[in-house]
Specification:
Mean pLDDT: 84
Shape: globular
CATH architecture: 3-Layer(aba) Sandwich
CATH class: Alpha Beta
Number of strands: 10
Number of helices: 14
CATH superfamily: Alkaline Phosphatase, subunit A
Distance between the termini: 33 Å
Largest sheet: 10 strands, mixed
Low-confidence stretches: 1-13, 45-57
Structural class: alpha/beta
Radius of gyration: 20 Å
CATH topology: Alkaline Phosphatase, subunit A
């Protein structure tokens, strides 16, 4: 059986290692577990990288979907023997079809908005995590639309809270105003569409990280226009469906699926947030959120296969924005927070599935979270000129 990171002797041994060595150890642990649990091959034994198709016609048809989830889950609740019960879909359905990267490190600020902004720009952003401000550097959406001449309807973000409303376009004017992604905030849609007589509080909770930052969720005429004009949903149909949902992430996935049907964007970015309930200190809710995220990721991959515009030409990339504190770190609160900056909170993973990806392979070579944008740039044929990351060779 692979090493369990709950093992007390191993934990004490890791405490004496440098952060880079701990990160490598976590990556190897994920690798060994996946190889034992799913039979995936070690990528380093292969002679060639991904069979990615670089023809211009293929790039025009290619679609990329990125799923990130804020407040990443730790290995002991996911990719470790004791956590596998919480991720049956990822472990048994998605991982065997994927190229799985076991050692993805985030060297930036461990806050959800700023970390997502860093993922979307390929630069470790330093903006205030609790301010609704745009990223300083060009986003993947601006690179994609300007370099490839794509229309505004071809790049969308589905974001979890009010604080993400500026994620689609940066402050950088080098790419020109109006070249970002359109952003849909499902909670605002629901707030605009719902009446005061119906309680949707379980879907409208906006932030778990601190009670000092809880922006009001509100919607208006613009949100209703998005609902009816873009998503082709009536207010009644939308609110009735929302009554059947149990969490904000379920609402986000519902909206993402409507976007896929109605707009078929080539670049779709979905940020989930349910796992961040860990900040409340309720371990059971944290586990429930992991299991829900596992199910929703599989549901989105299934939707890709069912939609004619996406089936056979889509690459799906799934990754947490960062991890959570280790139990043995005295400076943190274990699963509850991600404030220490220790290797457990910085070292995570990425799963790539679909077109151009070698299935059933696990890679433990180190990559950074900011490598995502330049990698997608090579896949789709645009240049992430100001990104500080490097293309991931195994994806290209």
């Amino acid at each position: 059986m692979p090493y369990s990171i709950n093992d007390r002797f191993a934990s004490s041994r890791l405490a004496n290692l440098a952060p880079q060595e701990v990160a490598r150890h976590l990556g190897r642990t994920r690798r060994d577990f996946l190889r034992d649990a799913t039979g995936m091959a070690l990528g380093g034994t292969l002679l060639s990288a991904s069979p990615f198709v670089r023809a211009a016609t293929a790039k025009k048809k290619r679609k990329i979907i990125v799923i990130t989830f804020g407040g990443g889950a730790r290995d002991q609740e996911t990719f470790a023997p004791e956590g596998q019960v919480n991720i049956p879909h990822m472990l048994n359905e998605l991982a065997p079809q994927s190229s799985f990267f076991t050692q993805v490190t985030n060297h930036g600020i461990l806050g959800h908005y700023v970390a997502t902004a860093s993922l979307a720009t390929g630069v470790y952003e330093t903006l205030n995590n609790f301010s609704a401000v745009p990223p300083d550097h060009p986003t993947i959406f601006e690179y994609f639309r300007k370099d490839l001449g794509r229309p505004v309807s071809d790049a969308w973000v589905v974001a979890p809270s009010n604080g993400f409303n500026r994620i689609g376009e940066s402050e950088s004017r080098s790419y020109g105003a109006g070249l970002g992604a359109q952003v849909i905030l499902p909670k605002r849609l629901l707030s605009a569409a719902s009446s005061s007589t119906t309680d949707y509080s379980h879907l409208l909770h906006d932030n778990y990280e601190t009670p000092l930052y809880a922006p009001q969720v509100s919607g208006g005429e613009f949100e209703l226009q998005q609902l009816e004009r873009v998503l082709k949903l009536s207010v009644d149909d939308f609110t009735q469906h929302a009554k059947s949902l149990s969490s904000p992430d379920e609402l986000s996935v519902y909206i993402a699926r409507q976007l896929m049907r109605q707009e078929s964007p080539s670049l779709l970015w979905i940020t989930m947030h349910d796992i961040d309930v860990a900040h409340s200190g309720a371990y059971s809710l944290y586990i429930d959120a992991i299991r829900r995220t596992d199910r929703l990721c599989a549901a989105l991959w299934k939707a890709v296969q069912e939609e004619p515009e996406y089936a056979g030409n889509t690459t799906l990339l799934v990754l947490p924005d960062f991890g959570r504190d280790a139990d043995e770190d005295s400076g943190g609160n274990g699963f509850q927070h991600h404030r220490t900056g220790d290797p457990a909170s910085r070292t995570t993973w990425m799963m790539a599935l679909g077109q151009g990806v070698r299935p059933g392979v696990v890679y433990d070579s180190p990559v950074q979270s900011i490598d995502l944008v330049p990698s997608i740039g090579v896949m789709m044929g645009f240049s992430a000129a100001q990104s500080q990351g490097k293309p991931i060779r195994e994806l290209l």
